[in-house]
Amino acid sequence: MRRKWWISIGGIAVIAALAGTIFLRGFDWPGSPWAAGMPIEALNGVAVYDNGPIASVSHGRNAAPDGYYFGQKWQCVEFVKRYLYQARGHKMPDGMGDAASFFDPATPPGALNERRGLVQFRQGGPDAPIAGDLIVFDGAAGFGHVAIVAAAGEDFIEIVQQNAAPPRERMALKHSGNGYLVEGRLPALGWLRVPTMQAEHVRGAAPAG
Fold first, then answer.
1. What CATH number is given to the structural domain containing 133?
2. What is the pTM of this model?
3. Amino acid 198: pLDDT
C-alpha cells in the first residue's frame, strides 16, 4: 500500500509539472513577456522577432558576422537593416539614428539619400512603392517607424514590420493627381530603394525597342 501511495504522489507531481508548463506556454503569444526573441513572421527568409509587450524595451545589440550593426534587438530599425543586408546585400553608409531619421527631407525625390545609400521617394510623389522598399513613417512619439514593403498592387501595399502589431499589415495606396499616397495608422514620409533595385525597376518600366 505504501508503494502505491508514493507512485500516486509521483504521478501528481508529474501532472502538476506538465500543467505548469502548459500554463506558462499558454501565455507565449506575440507581445507577451515570454515571447521576446521569438520568430513571428518572415520575409524572403529573413525573420521578424517579437519584442515583447513594451515597444520601448530593447534586448541588446545585434550585428552581422562581419560586424555590420543591425540595431537594437528587436526594434523596427534592426529588422529593416537586417533585411536589406541579408535579402538585398545592402549596407547603409550610416545606419545610426531612429526610424524617422532614415528619411531625409533635404534629398530630392528620386535622388540618392547618401547617408543611407538608398534612392529616396516622397509620399505624394509620382513614384509608387515597390516590393523590397524600406518605408518610413512619422509619429510613434517622434521616433518614427520603419518597415519593408512585401508586396504592392494598384491600390494597396503590404508591409512586414518588427516591434509593431500585426507584423504583416496591408495599407491602402491612393493615386491622387500625379502622386501616390500610402494611408496607414501612421503618416508615411516616403520610401527608400536599393540602387540596384531602382535600376532594375527603371529597365523594366522602359518601353521595348
1. 3.90.1720.10
2. 0.82
3. 96
From the first residue on, what is the mean pLDDT of each consecutive set of 10 residues in the chain (209 residues)?
Answer: 41 38 34 73 98 92 98 98 98 97 97 98 97 94 95 98 97 94 97 97 71
Q: Is the separation of the CB atoms in 73 and 62 below 8 Å?
A: yes
Residue 36 CB contacts under 8 Å (≥ 6 apart), including other chains: 49, 50, 51, 52, 57, 59, 74
Beta-carbon contacts of 43 under 8 Å, excluding residues fewer than 6 positions away, are 83, 87, 148, 150, 160
175: its cell numbers: 493615386
In a domain, 1, yes or no: no
How many domains is the chain partitioned into structurally? 1
Question: How many Å apart are CA 88 and CA 74, to the nearest integer?
Answer: 20
- DSSP 3-state assignment of 17? helix
Phi then psi for residue 177, to 5 deg, are: 65, -120
